Amino acid sequence: MRFIDPARDDWPAAGTAATPHGGPVLLTWAQWEASRAAWPADALVGVLLPNTVDVGNLHADLPRWSLVALEFPKWTDGRAYSQARLLRSRLRFDGEIRATGEVLVDMLPLLQRSGFDAVQLRVDQSLESAQRALRFFASHYQGDVLESRPLFARHAA
Amino acid sequence: MYTYTDFDRHLVRARAAQFRDQLQRRLSGELGEDEFRPLRLQNGWYVQRHAPMLRVAVPYGELSSRQLRQLAHIARAHDRGFGHFTTRQNLQFNWIPLDQAADVMDLLAEVDMHGIQTSGNCIRNITSDALAGIAADEVVDPRPYCEILRQWSTLHPEFAFLPRKFKIAVTGAREDRAAIAWHDIGLQLLRNEAGEVGFKVWVGGGMGRTPVIGSLVAAFVPWQQILVFIEAIVRVYNRYGRRDNLYKARIKILVKAEGQKFLDAVNSEFRAILEHDRDGAAHLIPTAELERVSRSFATPAGLESLPIDASAGTPGDAPLAYARWLARNVHGHRLPGLRAVTLSLKRAGQAPGDATAAQMDWAATLADRFSQGELRVSHDQNLLLPWVQEHQLLALWQAARDGGFATPNIGLLTDMISCPGGDFCGLANARSIPIAAAIEERFHDLDLQHDIGDIDLHMSGCMNSCGHHHSGHIGILGVDKDGAEWYQITLGGSDGSTLSGPSAAGKVIGPSFAADEVPDVIEAVIDLYLAHRQAGERFIDAVRRLGVASFRAAADAARRSTAVHAEPALA
To answer: Which residues of A touch B151 (CB under 8 A)?
Structure first.
């Protein structure tokens, strides 16, 4: 799991000018929708998706993205876990999936298992506690994005 | 009973360690209450009126004597000496200080217990038939499937923050003793014409403010596919369930609003998992896994073919109380020579479902002496001994009386389902326990109760419906108006059992009653039934035949402070 330091983030938000400028840029979903037709194939782009977007409709877009940032408007709103799971397991997205918004320490094990590989913690969160939160469980019953087989299938193998 | 593996044990201990870390961060101030709340809830910790409440999971109601003794120990050492068995087959403690919470989780882990997902907006502890594995009318033993579902749903990373709580109930018998249509997912195990085992699946049942009966979404899902099918349902719910309004967030609202579209989405998600997902078929249950789990539920040694004991009948000089106990508290069994016996937790002087530490210890002793060390917690908030030999019934009855467990009232008026209500619960609008006590007192006479016969009285202290008031033949709901306690009464509800008829929510009989009117209203309703019943007609059938309106009139006649006096006509 990569912990994003906002001060040294490689993916600056596009701001109001959503235009390619040579470096990586993070667009909002609306910006991408507006500029997707003209966006050059070689310009690095990441997109910030609201948790209401059906990722199943992104087949054409995903190959053009290097990063998907998924939002937790509230940390107890769990829709982005399903988005991440589908992006990884069904759509085979292998770029970065980043958790943004209200991202708290105790979400880390869930995020990691659902396919997130980067998080931007809320500013008041302890990095040390977040890293510790990832160490409590060695494995789980059900399959997930990291280990797609449930315990019973792993036993059988 | 399911036997924990090293893996299961390790996971529960890891969960206890994780919770200890979270609790320490809370107590040190690193974690705010808003951020701690969902974490403690998913470990069973509520903050109640007087102290935190801990809800301990009793998976599908199965409990060993060793576990029950540990619960008694926790009640003594950390609580005020008692616990409360719930209609979802769990156990609640009401007085454990939060700073002892992590120690209690360690004590639970010692006996393979925990509070994982007994609260919060996640997949809750799975409930089942208290007679699972022993019922004479059972088609398929649901317990191995319940356990496989328990494991799959435990710490599922994608479904920990659903729009709202999510409850699954499973039955494998012809008779529904698990009220499955009242659950977010109801599962009925059956065999198809080819003899293959599968599930009939209902979705979108639930109580609360808007009672809804589940809709049938699949007539037959082969057992191997059930985890995938449920994953599809829960994923559709997680993505599209409403999160803008707490009262519209249960899956029942999504199912009602979307209808066929919901069903199509589930079926398409189900296919997509199997056809497109990386290792999408990995959660198809292999026969070897079903067999592995099923081994835990083998019939205890020596019980499969008991010698028939011709002398096992009721002694001719048996007291009436024993005969009544045999009639009400002793149930048929799939194996000859065996019976299932309910230990009634409904008796004068104690709240429905409550047991003291001494009673828990005594129930554990009874389980060891008479039932292979195994107990069940029933949907009706009683304990049940599943492996009692017929020739030991008299000895069990005598021993059960010593613990106050032998009230012969199972299925009768005083065997009511009730939540703890406003005496303990922070959510409640009104108290349940004094109302339950007043009704018990009014109908204490066992002759009267036996004359009234089968009846389900269910009571909740608020709309959250923990006491399942919607499904009671008589339902009582506590409501709050201007800071005072009032009680809305419904008639004609059904949990879906054969006796009660197809699942239905009861109908309200007029404006709420004052607390002191409730026993009178119940009596008026019962009196009307007694006066007008036909030969052998049960209460619920009489309500349907006579109509709610006539009962409403009887109830209105019992009003005092809530009576509406006709205005004098204008001259």
So the answer is: 141-142, 151
Q: Token pair for residue A51?
A: 């948790």
Has residue B134 been placed in a domain?
A: no
Query: Same domain for B398 and B422?
Result: no
Q: How far is B133 from chain A (nearest CA, A)?
A: 23
Residues sharing a CB contact under 8 Å with residue B304, sequence separation 6 or more, in sequence order: B335
Q: What is the CATH number of the domain that holds B233?
A: 3.30.413.10
- Picking from B461, B465, B491, the residue whose alpha carbon sits closest to that of residue B478 is B461
Please tell me the pTM assigned to this model.
Answer: 0.96
User: How many domains would you assign to chain B?
Assistant: 4
User: Is B157 within the bounds of a domain?
Assistant: yes
Q: ipTM beyond 0.90?
A: yes
Coil vs helix vs strand at B99: helix
CATH label, A2-156, candidates 1.20.960, 3.20.20, 3.30.70, 3.30.310? 3.20.20
Tens of pLDDT, residues A68-115? 999 999 999 999 999 999 999 999 999 999 999 999 999 999 999 999
Question: Hey, is B42 helix, strand or coil?
Answer: coil
Across the interface, do B155 and A141 touch by the CB < 8 Å criterion? yes
CB < 8 Å to A79, chain B: 238-239, 243
Strand boundaries in B172-262, DSSP class E: 185-191, 197-203, 215-222
Q: How many CB atoms lie within 10 A of CB B12?
A: 22
For residue B178, count other CB atoms closer than 10 A to its CB. Answer: 32
Nearest chain A residue (CA) to B232: A82
Tell me, yes or no, whether B165 and B73 share the same domain. no
Nearest neighbour of B152 by CB, restricted to A76, A110, A142: A142
